[in-house]
Amino acid sequence: MKLAIAVHGAPYSSQSSATALRFARAALAAGHSLVRVFFYHDGVHTANALAVPPQDEASPLPGWIQIAEEHGVELAVCIAAALKRGLVDAAERDRYELSAASLHPAFTLVGLGQLVDAVAASDRFVTFPA
Amino acid sequence: METRKLLFLLRQAPYGTSHALEALEAVLVAGVFEQQVAVLFRDEGVWQLLDGQDGEALATRTVSKVLQALPHYDVDALYVCAESLARRGLSVDDLVLPVQALDAAAQNALMAHQHAVVND
């Protein structure tokens, strides 16, 4: 089955991203494919490469990077939601003359059309709310 | 992109967080991409429909004005949970747009006919 996932909650303040990651791993292990993982609302904070979590709190970020590398899963971040929260890639850093790029390179900034496309192209669309 | 029947479930209050406005952006974009979009307002989300809103005091957009743009994006299948309205002392006459109130059985039937339900 073709699945798409939306992550709406920020890591550390919400279980959304960690639960979505476990679901993604289980779905891939069961032989399903992942059309796209779409990070929206505060879920975009998952892609923050500049976060420094305390040692006793697990970050979902390495797990997302791992399934992107091992399974070619697309990690898509809503650009409008990301920019206003300070999540920028190198291109946006240069465009807005900011001091740093904060988006981990495993993630891609995309428009909301990619959310609609993920819903339309998948058999099941699963949202992990904040 | 294939044309699909998509139901957006909006359950969050219009102010206090940016959630409602961001969720509405996704609804508008689905309309732009010519999906067959329906919207169901439930729980605290019914407050988004209340007439007489003004976001200016909060330096934010007025959610009901964004809602009034939906028909211009060919999003005109608008539904509201009848029980969510009643529990908050509201009726369809208090709302900014013509929406159809549905009981639980009708909501189940609506969801059953979608390619996907997009939760907010």
Which key features would you list for this structure?
heterodimer; A: 5-stranded parallel beta sheet; 5 helices; 5 strands; globular; B: 120 residues
Characterise the protein shown here.
The complex is a heterodimer of chains A (130) and B (120). Chain A is 35% helix and 20% strand. By secondary structure, chain A is α/β, with parallel strands linked by helices. In chain A, strand 2 (33-39), helix 2 (61-71) and strand 3 form a beta-alpha-beta unit. In chain A, helix 1 (16-29) packs parallel to helix 2. The radius of gyration of chain A is 14 Å and the shape is globular. With 120 residues, chain B is α/β, with parallel strands linked by helices. Chain B has helices at residues 19-32, 63-68, 82-87, 104-112; strands at residues 5-10, 36-41, 77-81, 100-102, 116-119. Chain B has a 5-stranded parallel beta sheet with strand order 4-3-2-1-5. In chain B, strand 2 (36-41), helix 2 (63-68) and strand 3 (77-81) form a beta-alpha-beta unit. Chain B is globular, with a radius of gyration of 14 Å. Chain A binds chain B through residues 6, 8, 40-41, 80-81, 111-113, 115-117, 119-122, 124-125, 127, 129-130, and chain B through 1-4, 6, 18-19, 22-23, 25-26, 29-30, 32-33, 35, 115-120.
Short description:
The complex is a heterodimer of chains A (130) and B (120). Chain A is of the alpha/beta class and 130 residues long.
In the predicted model, the low-confidence regions of chain B spanning at least 5 consecutive residues are: none
Strand content of chain A: 15-25%
Q: Looking at the structure, what is the overall shape of chain A? A: globular
Q: Briefly note the structural class of the backbone of chain A.
A: alpha/beta
Distance between the termini of chain A: 25 Å
The main sheet of chain A comes to: 5 strands, parallel
Count of distinct strands of chain A: 5
Question: Could you give a short account of the major beta sheet of chain B?
Answer: 5 strands, parallel
Radius of gyration of chain A, taken over Cα atoms and rounded to an integer in Å: 14 Å
Q: Average pLDDT value of chain B? A: 96
H/E order of the elements of chain A? EHEHEHHEHE
Oligomer type: heterodimer
* Low confidence ranges of chain A: none
Quickly give the structural class of chain B: alpha/beta
Quick one: overall form of chain B?
globular
What's the gyration radius of chain B in Å? 14 Å
